[in-house]
Amino acid sequence: MTTRKVSPATEPPSSAEVNAASASFARLTSKLDYLSAADLGQVRLAYRFADEAHLGQLRNSGEPYITHPIAVAAQCAEWKLDAQALMAALLHDAMEDCDISKPDLIERFGSPVAELVDGLTKLEKLQFNTREENQAESFRKMLLAMARDVRVILIKLADRTHNMRTLSDAPREKWQRIASETLEVYAPIAHRLGLNQTYRELQDLSFRHLHPWRYAVLTKAVAKARGRRRDLIQKVQADLEATFAHYGMTVRIAGREKTLYSIYDKMVDKNLSFAQVTDIYGFRVIVPHLIDCYTALGLLHQLYKPVPGKFKDHIAISKINGYQSLHTTLVGPSSVNVEFQLRTEAMHLIAESGVAAHWLYKDDAQDGVSHNDRMGSKWLQSLIDIQDETRDAAEFWEHVKVDLFPDAVYVFTPKSRIMAMPRGATVVDFAYAIHSNVGDHAVSAKVNNEQVPLRTEVKNGDVIEIITDATSSPNPAWLGFVRTARARSKIRQNLRTMAQTDSQHLGEKMLAQALRAEGIENLPNNEKPYEATWEKLLRFSGNKTRADLLTDIGLGKRIASIVAKRLAKLLADTGEKPNALLLTRERFGAGEAIAQGSVQIDGSENTSVRFAHCCRPVPGDSIVGYLGRGEGLTLHTSNCYVAQKLYSKDSERFISVEWADEPVRSFEAGVVVTVTNGKGVLAKVAGALAAAEADITHVDMADDSDQGAMDLKFVIAVRDLQQLELVLRNLRRTPAVLRAERIQNGSQVTG
Ligand code: MN
Q1: How remote is the CA of residue 68 from the centroid of ligand 1, in Å?
Q2: Which of 45, 175, 630, 727, CA to CA, is 20 to 30 A from 442?
Q3: What is the pTM of this model?
């Protein structure tokens, strides 16, 4: 029968204590007795190398810099990390601060150690400096993803812990940034990984440096409260010891103190008084075997009355980070509530050390800890299984990450920039995530230096290199496998703008029309006897091919009438005379269309002609065409305000356009419908549109429902103005419709 008292949690050690303790390597070696002699020799080599590399560098405290790597390695030794991790801990600042290269490290200490150090160096370069919560979350994810090995994160946490312990030595203006980064990024990572002891320490140290005054006040208050309740705590402790002794149970009882930060956080967060937060006492009972947890629970429930609804079985249902314990709250002496946690040693280890317990476990197994207890956490066990079977740290870490963040995949550019991609994303998604130019010109890709098809799904930790070719353009087939909205829209956009053939087709039409204004009926083809004529024309325009010239005209890079005049002259040189009748009719018959024929629009122009969204012209509207530089032809209604503004600046870019007699498709028009709020209104409006045979392509609802009315903005497809007017009449006749107008220039003008 042994019951041991454990003193209440001590305050974080002062920086002076910490530095003194970790100033020598001898201090570290005493913690390394779990290593083999060969491993210990390797660690010593790493120490000597680091010591030399940092020679002459000092910490803020004035101590030799090497005290820091030693302290970090000592923390890693507490977690019983392996020799590679300890070496990396000793070398973690060497690359950054001492110009040691990765090849150097590989040569001296082997590639695994060099990779760990390299990983740490990369993390060092990430600096969190925004205070937004969601930023902190993605920053945490990024850190976890960047560390391709869980040991990198553990060393990083050890590094941060020591830097926090010694933060008081740093210039005061740095406290805020480093402490809040620790609180928002590193402490939650420690928590997620189940490193609760580190989690609590990081929180308290951050609190201490963020709010030194509040920290000091709370420290005093807590000490006072503790003194007041000493009798109570001793009474509970004595009751417990007597009870367990009576039933012959070997247990370890520990008082459980709240951390200062958790007290502070609760007061702020839940708006509680100091008394409300601290007037709860906690004990932890650690028992030999899993079944003892339940036995001890029964004994406790007979000793004091349980508070209903406060019992939780985190053994049967463990927390996501592997935590297991029974929780119960009892009414103790003087009717004060006392919280209890019951767990085995193995559960305690996981509760305090989380992922790090994985290394601690190996040690425990040799000490004969029962297999059942080792099975304590299924989560951790599954990690250990993977580690044991594969001995592959990468896969182990992969598993941890999948558990923590099931929704995203993190991959790297060749320059180690990290990109978060949705699960299932492909190499093409990645290319577009980097830059639309990379996506548009992607021809092939390498994942981890191996050639892969563009449709390959990316996996966590992949290093992806996209090979581009400026002349290449997106393949419509990509739309079949890309996962991200960005890639999809960029591919579509590119396919649209890249529709060269469409522009060429329009250019041909425009040149033919302009040529008619010169009295020539047909655009000559590219064959004999016109070959020479075209060659001369191309020399004049500076294009390589006839197709290029026509595309340029279609895109507005060349003015059709100028090219047509030149072509007419060249044709005249070969003896082809203009048709006088045609010349007169085309030049003077079509109103403003002087010196160039009108381009006929029938809807078959596809991508080369755009219909301006400000006015959305439909057949029946009087229209004008604006030939933007390199963007092809945009149609506006002739009374469109936007077009009129453009005309006042850039009139020579306007060309005469007219609707063909038989448009080949429908066109989009904007309509705003004001309706009373009520059930079934949308259905009625849709019915009115359907009755006029107009298709809805888009709806927007502007919610100004406080007026009892609501604006619905539709884009509908109609054949022509006549049908649009029918639509508006139908709408206005619909009950619940207060108003129906066509949208033009963003304001409403009746069609
Ligand atoms: Mn460091």
Answers
A1: 7
A2: 630
A3: 0.49
Inter-residue contact 654 to 632 (CB < 8 Å): no
For residue 464, give the H/E element and its range. Answer: strand 464-468
Q: How far apart are CA 46 and CA 721, in angstroms?
A: 82
Residues with CB under 5 A from ligand 1 (ion): 93, 159
Fold of the domain built from segment(s) 667-749: Alpha-Beta Plaits (3.30.70)
pLDDT at 167: 94
CATH classification (class only), 18-165? mainly alpha
- Choice among 11, 82, 96, 465 that is catalytic: 96
Identify which of 598, 643, 601 has the alpha carbon closest to the alpha carbon of residue 619. Answer: 601
Q: Which two three-digit tokens encode residue 381? A: 């066990």
Q: Are 285 and 296 in contact (CB under 8 A)?
A: yes
- Report the C-alpha gap between 69 and 87 in whole angstroms: 10
Domain-wise residue ranges, the chain: 18-165, 228-371, 407-483, 493-659, 667-749
Q: Provide φ and ψ at 296, rounded to 5°.
A: -60, -35
> Beta-carbon neighbour count of residue 274 at 10 Å?
17
Report d(CA 267, CA 273) in Å as an integer: 6
- Candidates 263, 265, 288; CA nearest to 276 is 263
Annotated catalytic, 693?
A: no
- First-to-last CA distance in the chain? 96
Active site residue 440: no
> What is the distance between the alpha carbons of residues 567 and 510, in angstroms, rounded to a whole number?
13
Asked if the peptide bond before residue 578 counts as cis, ω within 30 degrees of 0, the response is no
Task: Calculate how far, in angstroms, residue 77's C-alpha sits from the geometric centre of ligand 1.
Answer: 16
**How remote is the CA of residue 117 from the centroid of ligand 1, in Å?**
11
For the stretch 157-215, pLDDT in tens is: 999 999 999 999 999 988 988 998 898 878 887 876 778 889 999 999 999 999 999 99
Give the chain's residues under pLDDT 70. 1-24, 125-149, 192, 278-280, 318-322, 354-408, 416-418, 496-500, 580-597, 606-607, 630, 679-680, 702-707, 745-751
The token duo for 181 is: 């980064």
Using the structure block, give the residue that is written with the tokens 């100091």: 274
Tens of pLDDT, residues 15-47: 554 444 445 677 788 888 888 889 999 999 999
The Å distance, Cα 39 to ligand 1 centre, comes to 23
14 Cα–ligand 1 center, Å: 18
What spacing in Å lies between the alpha carbon of 103 and ligand 1's midpoint? 21
Active-site option among 97, 137, 658, 720: 97
Q: Which of 198, 224, 194 is nearest to 350 (CA)?
A: 194
Architecture of the structural domain at 407-483: Roll (3.10)
